[in-house]
Amino acid sequence: MTQEDGQLDSLVRKRIRALRVAQGWSLEELATRANLSQSSLSRIENGRRRLALDQLVTLARALDTTLDQLVENAADDVVISPMIDGSHGLMRWPVKGDPGMSVMRQRMTDPPPDNPARMRAHPGREWLVVLSGTAILMLGHRRFRVETNQAAEFPTMMPHAIGAEGGACEIMGIFDRDARRGHQKGASAVGDRKPTAEASRAPAHSGPRPRGGFRHQG
Q1: 59-81, pLDDT tens digit by residue?
Q2: Cα(192)–Cα(30) distance, integer angstroms
Q3: Are 191 and 198 contacting, i.e. CB atoms less than 8 angstroms apart?
Q4: Angle at the Cα of 182 (from 180 to 185), degrees rounded to 5?
Q5: Is-contact 170 89, C-beta < 8 A?
Q6: pTM for this one?
Q7: Rounded Cα gap, residues 161 and 179, in angstroms
């Protein structure tokens, strides 16, 4: 057995135990679900019994996961550096587990645009959380105040824009593929202009409709 094989073997055994504990199951309970003896399962977790493929398949099913997930190796590229768009005050990180998703962070100082013609609408969904300050979210004909640690979620086919209220505001948004493309097109249309209200609309929102916590300013 190579060192890499030994590390994967150890990882799988630890994963089986961690998944069992997360379910709140004793050795006996998981052994019963996987049609194994309690002593066999104990030896599997403790490295005193060889991992057999048929047993791994049964254990994966009993733990409500898949064989691929059970034997998945640790990724080397755990730490991800952001891509930075300084002209629009944006930092973006890809989500490797779901290439259609990305995370963006933006600092804004300008309020949202007063002109409804400058609001965006495009396919997709967005979700945002306010890290500091207070954000104003324009959503169709409605206006919402989203304060620090509050979040907003809505479909981006609804015309929308976001800006700061009463000073600097920092937000972090999660975008699906369509929403990210919509904002990238909007950012490229801004060109080299200063990141005023136009740029401050970038990270935003996703989901059905804003809920809980933020105040609707009629």
Answers
A1: 999 999 999 889 887 666 677 78
A2: 60
A3: no
A4: 110
A5: no
A6: 0.55
A7: 13
